[in-house]
Design goal:
It is a single chain. The protein is mainly α. It folds into 2 domains: 31 residues, no CATH class; 115 residues, no CATH class. 78% of the residues lie in helices and 0% in strands. The chain has 8 helices and no strands.
């Protein structure tokens, strides 16, 4: 231990920090306190649950809804979901760079907003190209929201 302290003194020009100094530094850092972490985790988990359940429900009824209400052809209707998934796969490759630039909170917010945009566009969009643009935005947002970006 003494050799370590001497090596530290030679390298850094002083004595090594004490254990107390490290614990003081950690106690004042931005680590979430135990009383707020479960509340934040419940909020985030509940948000993900509602977002994904809503999107899953809309996906099941999107094609029949567009056929019956909008009167669109089957060929048009069956292109909408592959648009989302191909766009997701394309943007998934570089999403770590985007998240690094805009930050985690912004990426989660934009990703969640894209799911809401999809629902609004599905119900309100009279135009097929506008719906495809909303679906592409949903694919990008899904890549931003995807939990897999934590692995990058």
């Amino acid at each position: 231990m003494r050799r370590l302290a001497e090596a530290w003194a030679l390298e850094c020009g002083g004595s090594p920090p004490s254990v107390q100094a490290w614990t003081d530094k950690l106690s004042h850092s931005k680590i979430p306190q135990p009383d707020t972490a479960p509340k934040d985790l419940l909020f985030l988990g509940g948000s993900f649950f509602l977002i994904f359940m809503g999107a899953a429900t809309l996906q099941q009824f999107a094609i029949p809804y567009l056929k019956e209400v909008r009167g669109w052809s089957e060929q048009k209707c069956y292109r909408i979901l592959p648009t989302v998934y191909f766009c997701f796969a394309f943007w998934r490759v570089n999403v770590a760079n985007i998240i690094r630039r805009i930050g985690n909170p912004a990426s989660l917010t934009l990703g969640g907003f894209s799911y809401c945009l999809f629902a609004a566009a599905l119900l309100l969009s009279p135009s097929y190209p506008l719906l495809l643009a909303a679906l592409m935005a949903w694919g990008i947002g899904a890549a931003l929201l995807s939990p897999g970006w934590l692995l990058h």
